[in-house]
Design brief:
Largest sheet: 2 strands, antiparallel
Strand content: under 5%
Radius of gyration: 15 Å
Number of strands: 2
Order of helices and strands: EHHEHHH
């Protein structure tokens, strides 16, 4: 693993970060915000690490995916409440507070 500065992934990161801000601020639907936003965050995290690290891409992607699964399943046990951060709006948004196994509602 080597440290680097990859401008391509910096631009990808900034573009996805901007999209996430727009989704959080202006989109209040039942699919894109909760599910599309989660998918974009996974790509955002991967792009962030690729800005600085030159490493095995498959291992990095797998590590980010496992981390994302841990966070998502931690939401199911309401870990934000365990940490005492439920009243802190910033950390509630960053860490996430909602888990659903269903993508579509009938």
């Amino acid at each position: 693993m080597k440290l680097t500065l990859n401008l391509k992934f910096l631009f990808i990161f900034l573009a996805i970060f901007f999209m996430e801000i727009l989704i959080a601020k202006y989109l209040h639907d039942a699919f894109i915000r909760p599910f599309g936003g989660d998918v974009l965050v996974v790509v955002l995290i991967y792009a962030f690490f690729r800005i600085f690290l030159m490493t095995n891409n498959k291992r990095l992607a797998l590590g980010v995916l496992i981390f994302s699964f841990v966070i998502e399943f931690s939401q199911a046990i309401h870990y934000v409440n365990w940490l005492g951060l439920q009243d802190n709006k910033f950390w509630s948004i960053v860490l996430g507070t909602y888990f659903s196994v269903l993508c579509f509602k009938d």
